[in-house]
Amino acid sequence: MQTYSYTGSFGYVVPLWILTGVLLLVMDAGSFRVKSMAREAKTSKVLGWINISVGAVLLVLRWII
């Protein structure tokens, strides 16, 4: 009987993607908006949503695979 044991860092990577996305949306985008830096605020919003999306996709793929 063969057993598979995976001890990688996948369990840490997914929450980090989601957490960094939330932090980008909350902290960076908010601080740029207060400082009237529209381009930087938009960029941090886009990157934040990309991070959250990547984390969510990885989480779903982990359930499927």
Describe the structure in your own words:
- This protein is mostly helical and 65 residues long.
- The model has no long low-confidence stretch (mean pLDDT 88).
- 12% of the residues are buried.
- It is 80% helix and 0% strand.
- The radius of gyration is 16 Å and the shape is elongated.
- Helix 1 (10-34) runs antiparallel to helix 2.
- The protein has one domain.
- The chain has two helices and no strands.
List keywords for this structure.
65 residues; mainly alpha; 80% helix; 0% strand; elongated
Q: So what's the overall shape?
A: elongated
How many strands in all?
0
Mean pLDDT, rounded to whole units? 88
Secondary structure class reads mainly alpha
- Determine the strand fraction and express it as a percent band: under 5%
Rg of Cα set: 16 Å
N-to-C SSE series? HH
The helix content is over 70%
Main sheet attributes: strand count, strand direction, barrel closure: none
Uncertain residue ranges: none
Distance between the ends: 21 Å
Number of helices: 2
Tally of structural domains = 1
SSE layout and pairings?
Blueprint: H1 10-34, H2 38-64
Keywords: Membrane, Transmembrane, Transmembrane helix
InterPro entries: CLC_0170-like
Transmembrane segments: 12-34, 46-64
